[in-house]
Amino acid sequence: MGHSLRRDQAISLDQAIQDLQENPHQAARLALQMAAQGNCEAQALLGQALLDGHGIQQDAQLALVWFKIAANQGHAMASNMAGRCLEHGWGCTANLSEAAYFYQQAAQTGLDWGLYNLANLLATGRGVPQNDLKAFELYQRAAERGHAKSMNLVGRYLEEGRAGLPVDETTAYLWYQRSAEAGDFRGQFSLACVLLNHGRWDEARFWLLQALQQGHLKFLRKATDELIAAALPALQDITEAYIQRRQTLEAAFTAPDA
Fold first, then answer.
1. Which residues contact 113 (CB under 8 A, 6 or more apart)?
2. pLDDT, tens digit, for every residue of 168-193?
3. Domains and CATH numbers, the chain
4. Radius of gyration from C-alpha coordinates of the chain
5. Which residues are CB-neighbours of 77 under 8 A, at least 6 positions away?
6. Residue pair 32/45 in contact by the 8 Å Cβ criterion
7. Mind listing the pLDDT tens digit for each residue in 38-83?
8. What whole-number distance in Å separates Cα of residue 22 and Cα of residue 231?
9. Of 57, 49, 8, nearest to 30 (Cα)?
10. Which of 173, 117, 177, 171 is nearest to 142 (CA)?
């Protein structure tokens, strides 16, 4: 069912969000109308629709404008998305210090993605002075809010004793387990590696296959190299599956447009 804006009609933004899949053009028009009236949820939704080209002509530059407008009204995810645009140069020239500013806005609300993205900049010293310990603290806060990617990184910090932290393999394992169960493919691979070190082959195989199904090309390149270097005969079939999947994705990535 479509929606049109009338003075005597209460517009449901929740319904508009649902309509993005079944009637994206109508939902985008509704979001545009409500965004122009100052509704920050609609502004954030419009920014995402413009960024993705979903129901409206793709325009990353305009998407960033709407994300910033919503962010200035205190919308946490809009702040995060403005940061993403500025970090990656979507619709703008990349500006890491400005990206950090918007991630900080999102992080201050407790948004897990804002915490995670700001932590990434702090961990690498991009746009902000490098601060590994502060990055860990933000990853941990995001992880405690259920952010699967952050769970894996908390585990990595504790397993390797990064940022001057004491090595804590037991707690690292628990974070890897939580990350894996929450669906993060890096967490699944990390958990599998720990399980292999403890001779728990069947469990390790399960998580390696889960990571294989979900991992993107960059991850698969690194994971495949690690499996080849490990040269474990009991995992030869898994290693070959990783090699094949990586080659398939590389071929698709380099293939010319049809």
1. 77, 80, 106, 142, 147
2. 999 999 999 999 999 999 999 999 99
3. 25-130 (1.25.40.10), 149-252 (1.25.40)
4. 21
5. 44, 106, 111, 113
6. no
7. 999 999 999 999 999 988 999 999 999 999 999 999 999 999 999 9
8. 49
9. 49
10. 117
